[in-house]
Write a structure and sequence with these properties.
Blueprint: H1 2-15, H2 20-27, H3 66-69, H4 77-85, H5 87-90, H6 104-115
Helix pairs in contact: 1-4, 1-6, 2-6, 4-6
Length: 117
Amino acid sequence: MALLAVQAGAATAAALKGNPVAGKAVFYRCASCHQVGPSARAGFGPKLTGVIGRKAGATTDYRYSPAMKSANIIWTEQNLASFLKAPGDFIPGNKMRFWGLGNAQQVADLLAYLRTQ
């Protein structure tokens, strides 16, 4: 039941029109672990440049959890929205230590920013 609620909220976030400028501000929460841009590299988390459309657990410069490596999903905007809302519910056992973004507009803005990266 909880996963259905997460998916419903994520569908709402993915459907909202995001603002990439606002999304860049939201990304500052992510920047302590993740990098984006042409010179991005893995740190405490994988680089997020080109994450939309990429297979989960696929970058070669980061050591993913077994849960992420075996997730067998593509990071579509809807999947990312679900993950950002509740990472531990979407992929149980992943290493991301973040409770999630509860604000659907912030998720939509972050997705809009990631589309530019």
